[in-house]
Amino acid sequence: MQDTHAPHLPDPRICDQARLSRDARFDGLFFTAVTSTRIYCRPVCPAPSPKPENVRYYASAAAAEAAGFRPCLRCRPELAPGNDAWQRGDHVIARTLKLMEQNSLEQDSLEQIAQRVGIGGRQLRRLFVERLGAPPISVHTTRRLLFAKQLLTETNMPVTDVALASGFRSLRRFNAAFQQANRMPPRELRRHPTKATGDALTLRLGYRPPYDFEAILSFLRTRSLPGVEQVDEHSYARVFGPAEAPGWLRLSAWPGDEHALQLQLHCPQPAQMLGVVTKLRRMFDLDADPQSIGDVLHASKVLKPMHQRRPGLRLPGGWDGFEIAVRAVLGQQVSVAAARTLATRIVQRYGTPVNTPTVPGLERLFPGPELLVEADLREVGLTTARAATVRGVAQALLDGRIDFRSEQPLDEFVARWVELAGIGEWTAHYMAMRALSHPDAFPAADLILRRAAAPDGPELSTKALTNLAEAWRPWRAYAVMHLWRSASDTAAARAKPAKTRR
Predict the structure, then answer these.
(1) Which of 14, 130, 1 lies closest to 57, judged by CA?
(2) Strands 70-71 and 39-41, sheet pairing
(3) Active-site annotation holder among 16, 287, 320, 446
(4) Which residues make beta-bridge pairs with 40?
(5) Positive or negative CA dihedral for 491, 318, 287, 262?
């Protein structure tokens, strides 16, 4: 039965079928609540199916909790991927959710948040209740409590650190909120504490299948920066600041057939932890809905065969906005390998060494704008024009003329960046793809895209490709990834026979 207060759900018959078949493609797109037990579950829950008359469907975990249901201890709703329909794009709900991911509700009132997305506070509350089934503060609180529940279940972190890691400044407030949502105090989940394994925590990061982790690693591996990152065929590792007390992480596939990645995380400052996990979910595109993306791409004669070959291809993001901006400038009109060489030189020359590196090979942080704003980058091989562009970007960021606020609309982001000398639309859209993970960013001037979009004819003009891509909205960035990957696969296939002959 569909909840009448949250109409933005899949059709009830689809929900019924997904729940009964435990279809992982719908995990996180809706939640099932059972009136006889007052528990809500993911559609993949392995528990026996309840009687149909006891079932209620909700658009979000927050909506289920607002209706008085508590999270299931068996399927653990905290492991469900997010709902991409509300987290991406320029809709005011998506922009607000991005602000909430940055803990903005801890610093600003709801009215101030509403002003930042261009509407009134009352209208914002109404939209959240209509679309997600709960007001913004409830959605925000549920997100933090579910993350806390995961930490309590999967780690041996002290409860005080769990409260800080999940965004609560007061242990008393955390205990009260957790008790209300879960009908038990936090320590009840610690009857069988997880044994410590070194100085790193291990967490599951769920996704909806299909998910092509290998393709994301391949993309990041060709662009990885020695000293800052390590990327092999099976994992991604990185060091992050501050330099005085650095953290590190490693992301790999979860053993077995579970639809999740395994995160090993050493984070000396608990208050950073939720932000790190949120950033990784964005960077590895774990909340995407492959069905929604595929429905659009399959309508294109160009993209359909590419999507059929790689239905789990995702949008690889970047760790830091300024780092992506510098690398985008370095990549203008040169190969990926050449851009990586220049970026590596910048890291070695200007990167900040971390104190007591704990992972061999991870010992530097990418330099911030304050370190490059006066740097003579010609010394590491940049042309005079490229060096000036990097310094100009650094200065503009320090001045506040540009930024990487995740809630800003794509057109606004591009318009502000192209005002800078040396930044064109290709660079701005590439940054929106990688730094903001915007699903509709589209660097139409890219030569490889213009060739790959016309495999049986002459390359398209930028205008022609832009017109063609209108049908691919709002997922043009995923089209970019498919076109780039297709071009790469074609080039590799052509090179293979030549290599064999040698």
Answers:
(1) 1
(2) parallel
(3) 446
(4) 33, 71
(5) positive
Structure token digits, residue 41: 């579950």
Long-range contacts of 245-249 (CB under 8 A, 24+ apart): 245/269, 245/355, 246/354, 246/355, 246/357, 246/358, 246/365, 247/272, 247/276, 248/200, 248/358, 248/359, 248/362, 249/276, 249/280
Nearest to 251 by CA among 217, 219, 209: 217
What is the maximum span of the chain, computed from C-alpha positions, in angstroms? 72
* 366 secondary structure, DSSP code: P
Q: Which residue out of 3, 15, 27, 41 is catalytically annotated? A: 41
The per-residue pLDDT of the chain, averaged, comes to: 92
Give every CB contact of residue 133 below 8 A, 6+ residues apart in sequence: 3, 5, 6, 58, 59, 60, 62, 63, 64, 66, 67
Q: How many residues does the chain have?
A: 502
Helices 425-434 and 410-417 meet at what angle, rounded to 10?
130
Is residue 287 among the annotated active site residues?
Answer: no
Is 41 part of the annotated catalytic residue set? yes
Give the separation between CA 122 and CA 463, rounded to whole angstroms: 41
**How is 401-463 classified by DSSP, letter by letter?**
SS---TTS-HHHHHHHHTTSTT--HHHHHHHHHHTS--TT---TT-HHHHHHT-TTSSPPPHH
Which helix (H) or strand (E) segment holds residue 237: the answer is strand 235-240
- CA dist 260 and 281 (Å) reads 11
DSSP codes of every residue in 186-198:
GGGGGSSPPPP-T
CB atoms within 10 A of CB 204: 17
- CA-wise closest residue to 24 among 255, 205, 208: 208
The DSSP 8-state label assigned to residue 276 in this structure reads H
Task: Return the DSSP state at 103.
Answer: T
pLDDT tens column, 382-414: 999 999 999 999 999 999 999 999 888 999 999
* pTM of the entire predicted model: 0.93
What tokens appear for 49 in the block?
Answer: 């199916």
- 185 touches 234 (CB < 8 A): no
**274/165 Cα distance (integer angstroms):** 6
Contact 28, 287 (CB under 8 A): yes
Burial 92-127 (b: 16+ CB within 10 A, else e): bbbbbbbbbbebbbeeeebeebbebbebeeeebbeb
In this structure, what token pair is assigned to residue 316? Answer: 């690889």
Cα of 314 vs its chain's centroid, Å: 10
- Tens digit of each residue's pLDDT (9 = 90 or more) over 439-472: 999 999 999 999 999 988 899 999 999 999 999 9
The helix (run of H) or strand (run of E) holding residue 385 is: helix 384-399
**C-alpha span between 150 and 386 (Å, rounded):** 45
* 214 touches 203 (CB < 8 A): no
